[in-house]
Amino acid sequence: MTFSVWAPARDRVQVRVDGQDHEMTAGDGGWWFSDVEGTDYAFVLDGEALPDPRSRWQPNGVHEASRVYDHSAFEWTDSAWTGRPLQGAVIYELHIGTFTPGGTFDSALEKLDHLVDLGVTHVEVMPVNAFDGTAGWGYDGVLWGAVHEPYGGPDGFKRFVDACHGRGLAVLLDVVYNHLGPSGAYLDRFGPYFAGRNDWGPGLNLDGPDSDEVRRYVVDNAVSWLRDYHVDGLRLDAVHALVDRSAVHVLEQLASEVDALSAGLGRPLTLIAESDLNDARLVTAREAGGYGLDAQWADDLHHALHVALSGETFGYYPDFEGRLAQTLEGVFLHAGTWSSFRHRHHGRPVDKRLPGYRFLAYLQNHDQIGNRAVGDRLSASVSPGRLAVGAALVFCSPFTPMLFMGEEWAAGTPWQFFASFPDPELAEAVRTGRRREFARHGWGESEVPDPMDPATVERSTLRWEELGVDQHRRVLELYRSLIALRRSRPELADPRLDRFRVDVVGDALVLHRGSLRVVGNLGGAAEVELPAPGEVLLASAEAKVVGQVAHLPAESFAVVQLSG
């Protein structure tokens, strides 16, 4: 077999295969090659053996030898799978390590029927690339093409995807191209992969000398997940941190190549960006001057919902107080307007010709829970009634709804920040940095969980036995009902933003959804006049309609079908 590696500035490269060193031959473009038979291998640079930057398998961790992996050897059973489009989707975000007590792909399979019964269509899996240690969020990955071994390695992930497809669930994978983790990031030993740093670590050289191969490193990795692992789409982490001044941005290049792959495979492939830019050019078609991605997370929607439900107005939340209706209609609150958190104007307006499904709406996600000091969920401080109203606004909106694992039953477990770096100095630096960060925001250092303590992972793991408790079961039934109603009534999934309107009536919001009205009351008992008599399709807290008036108890909602 042929081993190859890109190391353009090296005068000598060897490959160590099963303990034996072999010289490699320099080829074109800085690539080196060697024909050797074997299983475990590493590239030797100046006497140091390093894992393959394009490794497919790291069975012994990110500092050790890579292992040959043959994608064609896995026996897939999803040949009839034709994929799922993003239009009409309901997305469920989960973390493999804390989704089940087992913390593996195989143990996650046991809960897939729960997701099917819930009514979700897409499972978004947080990063599964190889990172140092056993437990972590996955955003400190350093070998992007290798699946984290403690989760089950490459075959384990394929079994998970295959099983999801067998149940009609599409799989989205969270990938991180904006930085590398602090332990095991050896790319710069091989070539000019890095250029500068961002808040999280070294960034990639996407537009400097020798950047063509670095861009290929990103795009080839993305294509491999979609082609070799049968994944249906990617969630691209923090794309605002990708520094690229090229005429064709790497995201546009990626979207173009994924479109071509989608045509070849005959199934839809989805690219979803996380971005802090409030710029819909990301999801605008390439022929209209955009990047051509399929969707993006809409944090402004989250912030406006969070403030309305919780009353919190610290950090970046103050601008969103009383602005829920405006944000629901505009997608971005900051659309060329002043941001007090950033101390500058921010964002640009969303063209209402764009379909709403290109923006993800959510009450919670891994960031908005896990980056709180104690990782507390919304249900820890917000009443069940207000949570129900929030869920109704998300699932009855023109956006693509997403929920975070356990949200559907108001899980009592927090979801906290955790890592498990074996290096004691790095572990202490992460522990100290985390505590100091939150101390600046008013939390006592003793309140912040130790991210290196295995107990933090245990606390963050879902307790599925909660489903046997009435209060949790009632929330689950509400979520099931909302998702089923969205699926049965096309008006609720209608993505046309130019036809979407939100009225404010006291403490109540009224969403116009074709012939339906979604009335969410966040205050005391309220009466809301409707334009015609109506019938309640779904409601909480015994909300009802009498004639043309919706009667809503405190903190309740009603989805109403208007007559005529």
TrEMBL record:
This is Malto-oligosyltrehalose trehalohydrolase. Belongs to the glycosyl hydrolase 13 family. Keywords: Carbohydrate metabolism, Cytoplasm, Glycosidase, Hydrolase. The keyword Disulfide bond does not apply. It catalyses: hydrolysis of (1->4)-alpha-D-glucosidic linkage in 4-alpha-D-[(1->4)-alpha-D-glucanosyl]n trehalose to yield trehalose and (1->4)-alpha-D-glucan. Pathway: Glycan biosynthesis; trehalose biosynthesis. Its EC number is 3.2.1.141. Its main location: cytoplasm. InterPro entries: GH, GH13_cat_dom, Ig-like_fold, Ig_E-set, Trehalose_TreZ, Trehalose_TreZ_E-set_sf. It is found in: Cytoplasm. Residues 73-440 form the Glycosyl hydrolase family 13 catalytic domain.
